[in-house]
Amino acid sequence: MRPRAGAPRLSLRGRRTERATIERVLSRAQSGQGGVLVVRGEAGIGKTALLEHARATATASGFRTEDAAGVESETQFAFAGLHQLCSPLLDRAGALPDPQQAALGVAFGLREGIAPDRFLVGLATLNLLAEVAEDGPLLCLVEDAQWLDQASAQVLGFVARRLVAERIALVFALRDPTDRDVSAFVDLPELRLDGLGQKDARALLAAAVGAPLDDVVRDRIVAEARGNPLALLELPKGALPSLLAGGFELPSALSVPR
């Protein structure tokens, strides 16, 4: 979840309201009220940029930050995503009750046993995060949540619904639409990202190009991008500066992942 240098700053143009929402979630967590948010939107719409904004804001405010990302090739591996998130925290697992330690240990392949009860794994995860947050506020970021294995998604949804009096913020990025089962995140607070309006799209495009831009060319790129920040950043890369400044024609529109 590390975009290229400069990308977060540019792709957050026009996202003042969304940035404020992220900051409120962090503020709630810092004050011990817990914070949860599911950031939803199409590919390229700015979900990763907002998560990076959350990371930077949290780090500046003294949070510890941990992250995980759903991986399409690991969707059949139970607890793979949860392991990404929790493995750096397992040095604190000794504080958990024995049944929860055992459930988490079996889930992560650290000890032998039958498949653990997911309720116990959920409790163990919640208490492990709370134990870590005793030392200071904790931000957990989960990118590409639509690709989490179902066991991890269910456990993290369980945890998210119980962050009531903890110094923990849990922020998911979820591609929408998706054909994956994302019912684990239903009814959680969400922030849906729409395309940028024309004014913000033009401002982002101008900042990305950093060179003279013909009005007709600009309007065509804005129309092709349909408010998608990634498209606005990528489409001009296929054109020579002379074309952007008013040449004859842009190359074919770059395909943005869907």
Compile the SSE list and pairings.
Blueprint: H1 7-11, H2 16-30, E1 35-41, H3 47-60, E2 64-69, H4 80-86, H5 98-107, H6 118-133, E3 138-143, H7 150-160, E4 168-175, E5 190-192, H8 198-209, H9 215-225, H10 229-234, H11 241-244
Helix pairs in contact: 2-3, 4-7, 5-6, 6-7, 8-9
Structure description:
This is ATP-binding protein. It comes from Luteimonas viscosa. One of its GO terms (molecular function) is adenylate cyclase activity. The longest helix is centred in the middle third of the chain and has 16 residues, at 118-133. Helix 7 (150-160) links the parallel strand 3 (138-143) and strand 4. With 258 residues, the protein is of the alpha/beta class. It starts with 6 loop residues before the first helix and ends in a 14-residue tail after the last helix. It has helices spanning 7-11, 16-30, 47-60, 80-86, 98-107, 118-133, 150-160, 198-209, 215-225, 229-234, 241-244, and strands at 35-41, 64-69, 138-143, 168-175, 190-192. It has 2 domains: 16-192, P-loop containing nucleotide triphosphate hydrolases (Rossmann fold); 198-241. It has a 5-stranded parallel beta sheet with strand order 2-3-4-1-5, with helices on both faces. Residues 1-7 and 253-258 have low confidence and may be disordered. The protein contains 11 helices and 5 strands, in the order H-H-E-H-E-H-H-H-E-H-E-E-H-H-H-H. It is elongated and about 65 Å long.
